[in-house]
From TrEMBL:
Protein's UniProt name: Anchored repeat ABC transporter, substrate-binding protein
Swiss-Prot/TrEMBL GO biological process terms: cell adhesion; metal ion transport
Species, as recorded: Cutibacterium porci
MF annotations from Gene Ontology: metal ion binding
Keywords linked to the UniProt accession: Metal-binding, Signal, Transport
GO cellular component: cell envelope
Organism superkingdom: Bacteria
Compartments it resides in: Cell envelope
Keyword Transport: yes
Family of this protein: Belongs to the bacterial solute-binding protein 9 family.
Signal peptide: 1-21
NCBIfam families: anch_rpt_subst, choice_anch_M, P_ac_wall_RPT
C-alpha cells in the first residue's frame, strides 16, 4: 500500500509539472537521506546546489518513515544520495527510487565509496542472550529474477497450530511496539513482514501458553516484473518443555542459543532455517531443514507482561508469557556489513569523492567548483582526523574501552585504536537478559571503565545501560553516531565531540 501511495503521488506531481525544481536555472537540487550526508554534500556543492535531507536532525535514520512532503522533495531533485547498506528503512529507499525523475542521478554512497578506497567491516552481532535470538531473513540478491534495491520479499504467516496465541513484534527506539504477527485476532493479510533483499530483522516472539507450536510461513518475491513464489515452510517451536523429551520432536535438531532466522533464499527459491550459534556472522552460519529442526523456548523465557498500556496486546499486565526477546532495540533491518562507514574519516573522504563525481555528472559546468570545494574539505577532514588521533591518544591504552547502547562505532574503534568492550540496547517490552547484564557487569568490573556512553536520543529515555552504570558508580557520557542536534550540527563537529567526550570521560 505504501509503495503504491509513493508511486501515485510521484505520478501526480510529474503530471502537475513538479519535475522541475522551483530554483534558479543554475542551482542543482540534491536530496540526501540523512543530515550527515547533507552536510558532506553542502561542503562539496557550495552555492551551486540546494541540499535537503529527508531525515531531520534528531530523528533516527534507521526508523524514519517518509511523508508526502518527502515524496515531493524527491520529485524535485536531480540527484539523490543515500547511504544504504540497509542503514535507511526500505520505505525511504523505495520512495527515492519510485519518485526520482527520469534522468536524475541516484547513488548509494556506501557501495560506491568502496571503489574509492573505503573499507567495510562485517556487522557481527554477539549479544549474549539466555535464549535463542529468532528473526526473519532474505538471502541472496535475486538478480536473475529482476530484483534490485527497491524489491522486497513478503514473509506471510499463513497458519499457526498450537495451544495458545503467538505474537511477534518489534519495539521501536522510543519504546512503541509494532505488531508483525498476531494470532489473537485470527490470521489475515496483516500478518505479513516485508523485507528488502539480502536483509534480516529481529523481533520479540511471545507465546501465551506452553506447548508445541507449528507456524507456517509463505515467502513471495516482489519485483518490477511481478511476484514470484519462493515457497512455504513450517517452523516448529517447543515452548516450555525440552523438545528432546517430546516423542514427536526427540530426533530433531534443537536450536536454543545464538541467532536463528526463518530465511527465504531468492537465488534458489527455497526456505530454510539459518542458524548461527555464536553470532559470528557468515563464518558460523549453518543452513538447517525446518522439517528436522525445532526452536526451544525454555522455562527461563517465562516473563511478566509489563504494566505499560502499550503492551496490553500481549495480555493482562502482570500475567506470565514465554518470550524470546528482540534483544536489539528499534526497527533493526540490516545486512551483513556494518553500514556506519562515516565513523571512519578515511571512509568519509571516500564518500566526499563519490559526492564530487556524482555532482559533476549531474552538473558538468560546476566541475571546477566541485573539485575545489572537495579539495578544501578533504584538507579539513585530514586535520579533523589528526585532531581525533591526538585527542584519543591522551587516553591511557588500557582505558580505551567503549561501552555504549548502539552497535555503530566499529569503524571509529578500528580507525583510532579503541576497543568495543560491549553494547547493550534496552527493550522496554521485556526484562534485560540476565546473561547480558552479567556480561556487562563483569566487563565494567574487570576493565574498571570510568564511563559508559549513550546517544542523546537514548539519554532522554530510561536505559538499562544507565542503570547498570549507576550500580557501578561510573559516569554516563554522550556520544553521537547517526544524527545531529542543536549541539552538534556538522560531521566535523560530531567527530570532534566524540573524541573530546571519550578523552574527558575515559582519560
Amino acid at each position: 500500500m505504501k509503495n503504491r501511495l509513493v508511486c501515485v503521488v510521484a505520478a501526480l506531481c510529474l503530471l502537475a509539472g513538479c519535475g522541475h525544481a522551483p530554483t534558479s536555472h543554475d542551482t542543482l537540487s540534491v536530496v540526501t537521506t540523512t543530515p550527515i550526508l547533507a552536510d558532506l554534500t553542502r561542503h562539496v556543492a557550495g552555492d551551486r546546489a540546494t541540499v535537503t535531507s529527508l531525515v531531520p536532525s534528531g530523528a533516527d535514520p534507521h526508523t524514519y518513515e517518509p511523508s508526502l512532503r518527502d515524496v515531493r522533495t524527491v520529485v524535485y531533485s536531480k540527484v539523490a544520495l543515500s547511504n544504504y547498506l540497509m542503514l535507511e528503512p526500505h520505505s525511504v529507499i523505495k520512495t527515492i527510487d519510485a519518485s526520482l525523475p527520469a534522468g536524475s542521478v541516484n547513488v548509494s554512497l556506501a557501495e560506491e565509496a568502496q571503489k574509492y578506497g573505503a573499507e567495510v567491516i562485517p556487522l557481527v552481532e554477539n549479544a549474549n542472550l539466555d535464549t535463542v535470538w529468532l528473526g526473519l531473513r532474505v538471502m541472496g540478491k535475486g538478480t536473475a529474477q529482476g530484483a534490485d534495491r527497491s524489491s522486497s520479499v513478503h514473509l506471510q504467516l499463513t497458519s499457526v497450530d498450537g495451544p495458545g496465541y503467538l505474537t511477534a513484534y518489534i519495539t521501536g527506539t522510543f519504546g512503541r511496539p509494532h505488531i508483525y504477527y498476531s494470532t489473537a485476532d485470527g490470521i489475515d493479510e496483516r500478518d505479513d513482514v516485508e523485507l528488502p533483499t539480502d536483509a534480516h530483522t529481529h523481533m520479540s516472539w511471545a507465546f501465551s501458553a506452553p506447548g508445541v507450536y507449528k507456524a507456517t510461513f509463505t515467502a513471495t518475491l516482489s519485483t518490477a516484473r511481478g511476484n514470484t513464489s519462493i515457497g512455504t515452510q513450517t517452523l516448529t517451536i517447543a515452548v516450555g518443555a525440552d523438545p528432546r523429551t517430546i516423542p514427536e520432536l526427540a530426533d530433531r535438531t534443537v536450536i536454543d542459543k545464538g541467532h536463528a532466522d526463518v530465511a527465504a533464499d531468492i537465488d534458489d527459491n527455497t526456505m530454510t532455517l539459518l542458524s548461527d550459534p555464536t553470532g559470528g556472522g557468515v563464518r558460523t552460519q549453518k543452513r538447517l531443514n525446518l522439517d528436522t529442526s525445532v526452536i526451544w523456548v525454555p522455562p527461563k523465557a517465562l516473563t511478566e507482561i509489563p504494566p505499560s498500556p502499550t503492551f496490553r496486546f500481549l495480555g493482562r499486565p502482570g500475567s506470565s508469557i514465554h518470550q524470546l526477546p528482540q534483544a536489539v532495540l528499534g526497527v533493526h533491518v540490516h545486512g551483513e556489513i556494518d553500514p556506519h562507514l562515516w565513523m571512519s574519516i578515511k571512509n568519509t573522504k571516500a564518500y566526499v569523492q563519490v559526492i564530487r563525481d556524482t555532482l559533476i555528472k549531474a552538473d558538468p559546468l560546476g566541475a571546477q567548483t566541485y573539485r575545489e570545494n572537495t579539495s578544501t574539505y578533504l584538507a579539513q577532514l585530514d586535520e579533523t582526523s589528526r585532531y581525533v588521533d591526538r585527542t584519543i591518544a591522551t587516553i591511557p591504552r588500557g582505558r580505551r574501552q567503549l561501552i555504549t547502547s548502539h552497535d555503530a562505532y566499529g569503524y571509529l574503534a578500528q580507525a583510532h585504536g579503541i576497543q568495543i568492550a560491549g553494547f547493550i540496547s534496552s527493550n522496554p517490552g521485556v526484562e534485560p537478559s540476565m546473561a547480558q547484564r552479567r556480561k556487562l557487569d563483569q566487563t565494567i568490573a574487570d576493565l574498571k571503565v570510568p564511563a559508559v556512553f549513550l546517544e542523546p536520543t537514548v539519554l532522554r529515555d530510561s536505559s538499562v545501560l544507565a542503570a547498570i552504570a549507576a550500580e557501578h558508580s561510573v559516569k554516563v557520557c554522550p556520544i553521537y553516531g547517526d544524527t545531529f542536534d542543536n549541539r552538534v550540527t556538522t560531521y566535523i563537529d560530531l567527530m570532534k565531540f566524540d573524541a573530546d567526550s571519550l578523552a574527558a570521560c575515559l582519560g
